[in-house]
Structure formats: C-alpha cells, structure tokens
C-alpha cells in the first residue's frame, strides 16, 4: 500500500492543500461514463497501477500521473495541488445530491457534450445547476473520432497537440465546435476553444476529446489542473490533522463488514476507532469506525481480497467506512469525526447540514416526490424558475397519501403529483384515477416539467 499512503506526504508537501473534487455532467449517452473510464484507464497505463484507486465511489488521479500523461503540457513544479479526485457516478443527479457544508461537494465540473448532438435537455439542466451552485466548469466536446474528416493523431500519444490544433480542427469538426461555443454563449457564457482562453474564470474553455480513443483526455486533465491551481487554490486549504469531514457517496454491503458507507473526506483526517456522526434517514447516527478500507491496486484486483485496511485517510480522498449501525445511512448525507469535541455539538452540525437542503413550498401548488433530498431540491429549484408553486415536497415513492394531498388542491392545475426518479405505488395509481389527480413521472426534470406544462396548457385551453 505504498502509493495511497504517500498522500499524507503529498498533503504535507502541498502545505495543507487538498485535491480538488471533480464531477462529470452532461446529457444521457453523451459519453460521461466512457470519459470517466478512459481517464481511469489512461491514468493506470500512464502511472503506477497502485497510484489509482477505484471502486469506492471516487477515483484519485495524482499530479505525477497527470503530468506523465500530458508530457510537456504539464510541468509538475508549476502545481502544488496534489491531483484530481473524480466522483465516479456521473450526472447532475449525483452532483446535486452530494454536498459539502451546504455547497456542492464537487469543486469543479466537466460538462460532456456530444459534438454531433450539441446541447440537449440534460445539458441545459446541468448548466442551470452549475450556474446556481457557481461551480466552475469546462466543456468536453466528446466523440470527435466520429466526425467525418477527423484525422486521428496516428503514432503519437493520445493528446491533441496545441500547435497542430489549428490545422486539425477543420471542416465539420470546426463547425460543430463553434456551434457548441454559440450554444454556451446563448446561455450567457463567454466561451472559446481552450487554447485561446486566457481567463478561465470568465470564459468557458471547450476541449475536443474522444472518450473512445482517449485523444484530448490529457489536455482535459491539464486544463482542469490549471483551472484548479489558478482559481481554487485558496479553497483547497485544509486542516490536515483535524477531525475528518466528508460526504456519503453510497451505502453498500461489503463482505465481512456488513453495511458500509463509501465516502469522500474533504477536510481533516479520519482514523480507525474514531467516533463518527453520519446523516441517516431518521437523523444523525453516532457510531465508531471499525475499519477503513481502500481498494486493492488495480493490478491485484483479480485476487480474492478486494479491499485492504488502512489506518487513516486524509482529505481529499475516498474511503469505505465500516462501522456498526450504518443501515439507515443516507447517500449525500454528511460524515463527521468527533475526536476531542463534544458529540452533541457534532450531532447538531450534522442536523444543520441535513436541514440545509432548500426546498420551498407554498400554500397552494403541486405535490413533488424525488429519491433523495438533493434531487428534491433540484426539482424544486427548477419548478421555481418555471413559476410552478409546490405545496408539498417529500423523498420517496408516490403513495396514496400524496394523491390525497393533491386532491385537496382547489385549482385543477394543482391536482398533480410530479415524481422525479421514483416509482408510483399501485394503490396510488388507482386512487389518482378515481380522484382525477394526474401523476407525472420521469427521470429527467426537464421532461417532467414539459409534460406538466402541456397538461396545464390543455386545461387552460379547455377552460376558454
Ligand atoms: P453516458 O450516458 O453519458 O454515461 O454515456 P456513455 O459513456 O454510456 O456513452 C454512450 C455511448 O456512446 C456508448 O455506446 C459509448 O461507447 C459511446 N461513446 C462515448 N464516448 C464516445 C467517443 O468519444 N467516441 C465514440 N465513437 N463513441 C463514444
């Protein structure tokens, strides 16, 4: 376990600066998963296999690996941030669910856009969320390998060379890339190809990539590193030895350990035997760390043992936490180490963080349901922008109770339940038929609202 252990040294070298946390967003099928896979895969090829961790909800790509992938694009002495930590679950759903002290867990984002397809509904949703959370991002214009006339960089490492770029970005691809730049500008962003952007804070850089061939991926990592170094450095300073603070990414079962949580620690340190407070379905859970687990290096992953124990983990890094009583732990909820503080104080902090999800309701309006607090908040925020009032908002499947509430809404347009990423119970469906309540269900906020708005329009037309 030589490499991950060296994180502590990295942190010390970096004077208490942590790794920026990166999220990948974009429309379905535009290549988010493939891009993450490629980044992991390329990083493994470029670096020591042990340096890359995975299977605990996040992937750390250290600076030396980025610099060996990017060749002369990256001089490691220009940077004092230790690398990049990618959240493995792509999409704006996980982005809005994963919080750190009320803000987004991710410090920076990659918005993936298929060059052939341009902006699509979920691209717009992602942009709305990035704007709302003021998260800096760059655009990965993906699938360049599918554009007619694109001439792959034969025989060279998979990076798009800056010098050659102007010769190679021509014809069809050029047109498509400028379409994306135009769409960004329609949404109020000034944007340009990344090699022409000087100020990434006010301009969005567009990086052409192929998640299939890997071309452009080193450029993408280089730009992310540069952007973080320039604009996020101050926010990355942490209390390295302090009590750990993190977010639950996923609640899973691990053989021999029962229910465990995969978490990202973004401040301080978590150690074996630490007392911790974790956000749960019924409020804070107080428990004690039994084991901290890291995945085996990739090269050894085929062996029986998938994880190995570590004594402690310092921010920012992913870790699997084994502890008693984690059954009700909630994805997106906070994790805090108690150490020498008063446990009640820490419980209060966790409660405050859970209460920090902003879902506004009105006297009259529709009923909304979603699978997590974060997605409920995202739906409520978008409805607010569409000036659609919400009377009641809750996490969970659509139940008869929700239909009963909607039924009491006076206005016909309010007799509706909008369900995001959850199921509708059969009883609820039956009751809705009987009581003339409409249930709209979708996994895409944009489409959900569109269906509801069509419904409202039909009612209004009928009333005229
Ligand atoms: P996601 O829904 O955004 O996570 O998209 P996926 O990563 O699942 O990709 C959707 C499809 O596009 C898959 O069939 C991928 O193999 C394909 N794909 C993704 N990136 C590329 C690319 O750069 N080039 C090509 N040719 N195909 C790609």
Q: What bound compounds does this protein have?
A: guanosine-5'-diphosphate
Number of helices: 14
Structural class: alpha/beta
Please bin the fraction of helical residues.
25-40%
E-strand count? 23
Biggest beta sheet attributes: 8 strands, antiparallel
Strand sequence of the main sheet, in spatial order? 14-13-19-10-11-18-15-16
Straight-line N-to-C gap: 72 Å
Give the low-confidence spans.
Answer: 1-15, 48-54, 154-166
Mean pLDDT comes to 85
Q: How does the overall form come out from the CA principal axes?
A: globular
What is the percentage of strand-forming residues? Answer: 25-35%
Rg is 23 Å
Could you explain the architecture of this structure?
Residues 17-232 form the Tr-type G domain. One of its GO terms (cellular component) is cytoplasm. Function in general translation initiation by promoting the binding of the formylmethionine-tRNA to ribosomes. Seems to function along with eIF-2. This is Probable translation initiation factor IF-2. GO terms for molecular function: GTP binding; GTPase activity; translation initiation factor activity. It contains 14 helices and 23 strands. The protein has 464 residues and is α/β, with parallel strands linked by helices. It has an 8-stranded antiparallel sheet. The protein has a 7-stranded mixed sheet with strand order 2-3-1-6-7-9-8, with helices on both faces. Helix 4 packs across helix 9 and helix 12 (400-407) runs parallel beside helix 13. The chain is globular. The structure holds guanosine-5'-diphosphate. Guanosine-5'-diphosphate binds next to helix 3.
